Structures
1.
Amino acid sequence: MTAWLTIHTRRVLGAFIETLGPLQGWERLFLISPWLSSFGKECGMSFEQFTKRVRDDRPKVYVVTRPPEFDWHRQAVDALAATKSANIALLPGLHAKLFVAETKSMSISMITSANFTAQSLNNQEIGLLIRGKGDGQALVHRLQREATEIYRTEGRKLVAQRNL
């Protein structure tokens, strides 16, 4: 039996992606991270595979990040926008990192110090991965509401909206 709460101190982003990857029917994703970049297969799937999965499953994706200042950040934002599933909000000064995924089989969330970047795989980070089952179900639901509130923060600049 898998615990509903696990603590990760290595490859924190990888723990989230590796948990999400095999889940069927991605329905909704929240990626709240000041920085975004592509990453390789060390996460269980590459960033390119991740964005392909978003295009294939067509979940509603909500991204909140800082306005890109670097090419690698801009390229990641553009790749997510190109999926036509992403609602992207730019929020100067964003510091929070929260990832939430709702799928047909289970919901998961991660509260973390790690950004959604390749560099975070090399940094000393910490993350709490919560599975939406048992006692974790109410917490994942609460974190999804928090992610929604962060997405709706006053002062954000919407740069992409999902095409229906």
2.
Amino acid sequence: MRIFAAVLATALSFATAAFAGNPVGKYSVEGKNPDGKSSYSGTVTVEKTGETYKVTWNVGGTVFIGTGLGDKNFLAVSYKSGGDTGLALYGEDGDNWAGIWTYHNGKKIGAEMWTRQ
């Protein structure tokens, strides 16, 4: 039984390490708007599209679609929803991603945390 537990623990640690630094996946998102007062939550899906990534947020029923580029350490995303456009930058945080963002012509930044589902 101890051998089985050790093998299982080792396998799970390798599975977790395989995700670390790879932004592809589904996440819960929590964030603060650039006003610093209001917050939001929703979901984010990241898909690999050749050399780029398609990033889709669903926040309160509003869908934002973005195109990202990066590697295992960072992800830069330009996004659009209706008339809103902007830019976001994320860094890997273990299995999750943390970032900042702003609207086009923005003067302040918001913050966001993606937690892998």
3.
Amino acid sequence: MRERGLGRPAEPVSSGGPAGPARVLVLVYGIFALAAGARAGVQLATRFEEAPVAYLLSAVAAVVYAVATAGLVRGGRTGRRTALAAIVVELVGVLVVGTLSVADPAAFPDETVWSAYGRGYGYIPLVLPVLGLVLLARTRRNGAPARD
């Protein structure tokens, strides 16, 4: 009698985390969480009085990116819901702050991550939530297994 598993090809070991395009999206969200957080931290610590609203909005963006990253990494029902909520907040934030910053530039004496729809970041903040929502819809439609 052969022992179980001998003579058969090894199955890939998976950490249960995201794969393929989802992994790239998680990486970009993580980078944006770090970039926005670092930028906001420096601005809040050194120049808060110059543009407090703009710097606080960048801090909020960093938190939203971090929550989206955590939700996408966690996966399952809870992770998907967390990511969905964060990504919707992100999209609304980009659209509202982007519109306000274009309509009344004087209201934002310094740029935020979401100013002018993310112009300072190559408009990635505008595209990122759309890609996040598409990914969540695709994984849901494809019947991605829940890990909760």
4.
Amino acid sequence: MAVVRERIILRKGRRNGEKKPHRIDIKELSEGDSLLVEITIDKEKDLVYRCLFEPEQLAGRRSVAFRVIGEEVYWLSNLQPKPLLKQQADRLVPAVEHVEEVSSQRRGGKQGSKERKILVFDEKGNLVSIYVSLQNAATMMNLRETAIDKLCKTKRSSFETGYYFRYWWKVLHFDITDFSMTVRQYDLLCSRNERLRLLSGLL
């Protein structure tokens, strides 16, 4: 059993009266896991909503949904998670995010290649989240998949969130649960690994 953290940053245009509710995919959670949700409603005001779902509240569910009206978060399906303070959330959440590898399905039911994990770094370059796939990252961060893919490749920060996104290289020798990793350190590690790969190909 573990406490799994999901961070969501709302775009300014989606804070009030959304036509569709926000949905958090929880299919990848293991039985007995708790879910800690951190929703950044307004970055400039440092307005963050935090709550905890106990395992019994998540049993049999594939997702949980919510709406934001003004500065209030409303959970659908009569869900009532436990509100948390930042200090409580920091004590509860371990360094490990839920990062199980999942396979994508192509049209026609054929098995596709495994999704690549997405690393998310905050404005200061600190690793804050790991998502199982590009689609999952796009859903949780309220960004387009194409936008995150482009940010991963160009290594620029997001104009909307200020965050940095990177694809995870499985061949890299670093502990994926080490949340002291910065985006600069990760880029240097990638660059070093790529040089080694090219050199080994020449030998």
